[in-house]
Amino acid sequence: MQPKFDNPADITSSQRLLITIAVMLVAIIEVLDMTIVNVALPPMMGSLSANSDQITWVLTSYIVSAAIFMPLTGFLVARFGRKRLLLLNIAGFLLASVLCGMSVNLVQMVIFRTLQGIFGAALVPLSQLILNSSYLPEKRGQAMAIWGMGIMAAPVLGPTLGGYITDTLNWRWIFYINIPVCLLAFFMCLKVINESPSQKQKIDWLGMILMTIGIGCLQIFLDRGNGENWFESKQILAYCIISIISLSFFIVRGIKKPDNIINLTIFADRNFASSCLMITVYCASFFGIIALQSLMLENLMGYPTVTAGELMAPRGIASFFSMAMVANLITRFDPRKIIAVGLTLSVLGTYAMTYFSLESGIHLIIWTSIIQGFGMGLFFVPLSTMAFTSLSREHIAEASGLFSFGRSLGQSIGISIYSTILSRETQINWNHLVGRINEYNSIFQAWQLKMQSLLSKEMMWQVLAGQISKQAGMIAFIDCYWAAALTILAMFLLLLLMDKPKKISAVMDIH
Q1: CA–CA distance, 376 with 348 (Å, rounded to integer)
Q2: Strand ranges (DSSP E) for 120-215?
Q3: Domain 269-511 carries which CATH code?
Q4: Angstrom distance (rounded) from CA 44 to CA 58
Q5: Whole-model pTM?
Q6: d(CA 85, CA 397)
């Protein structure tokens, strides 16, 4: 038995507003916690007595636990009811955040970050589910725009906020700021959200175990692979093999078993399957290069952490405005056309980044971010709507968890792939540039003659090595931006797989 939901016609405007604020608060704070921690890792190392390799488990533990529990949203809603599950997750996330802020060593931090990921996993899909069930059919495009503003802007603005908090207070406050937000959201949800019926279900333990092992090993493989040089590490190879075997058994068994822990038959819906694939690929490219851009701004261009965060903020601001615009456009135009415009802007913005150099000014960095941000908003909102247009109402809860999982998985894949491209291309470019330093290179000879009058021979070679290292890294970043632009461009092929939707004002009605 699937959970039933309220008729949105019975919800007043004031109730709907309070519901929207409540679920968006918890969704934003959960997504924000995935990126806000990144900039705080260096000061964490000293406080927790961890080295640079060990401290990354603060990120890995959260990502892995959230990825495992996110696809289970539909099952958990059916078993416990959406309100009970939401309140439990908010309370658990709040407690885990406090414990993270109080951690005195790495073991404690990893354990509490794991708990934070477990309780936070369902917050995003639950927010999407509750918003969909609270708005009239003709207003659900606007609901997805509101949801998208927080879900896609929060991770972009996370490093900026994290940098300010770490510099002005200390890293523990990136967890403590969750306290007032979670408390406010808890009491608002307690007051304004109605419960959905729950149904005691037999737990498919074998399916649960296969999925947990498969997704867990996959996320560890993606998160740790580049640092361990991928398949040259026996441990990383083992994670990959275990993940493939577990997920293969899970999928084959799930197709044949109707009461599997996750209903895989919903992927037979063409629009939903295409949307999940597109959000995964898009997030892989988009968030992969965002993670790299902060490294480029700080390590190559020499910007402080706070300034680097400010230079990336226009992307999130632009996406916020474009999502507000698309809320009105989505009921008047075919969502696939809006998605196409979003992809076009995303390609143009990413392509413009291939013109970056060590001498690039602030204006070029800001304008490429703005173009990308507008593209992201025009892509994400109609895609989030298209994903559920042809699904029956009882499958929305499960579909919301799987769609959010695709977004999360895409981020992990993108960061892993582009980090690998960056490190390997940097080495290749280094060797290529060093090969040009010889007595037959007239440009090098002129530079050497000039430097000899200014620096000692030893200093001259140090300066040259530093310049080559920066140029090799800059070329590697450009290679990553080219790869991302071409990947986003190829997504137009996936857009062709989507069926023309019904009029948005008529879709997703209560069945």
Answers
A1: 12
A2: none
A3: 1.20.1250.20
A4: 10
A5: 0.82
A6: 12
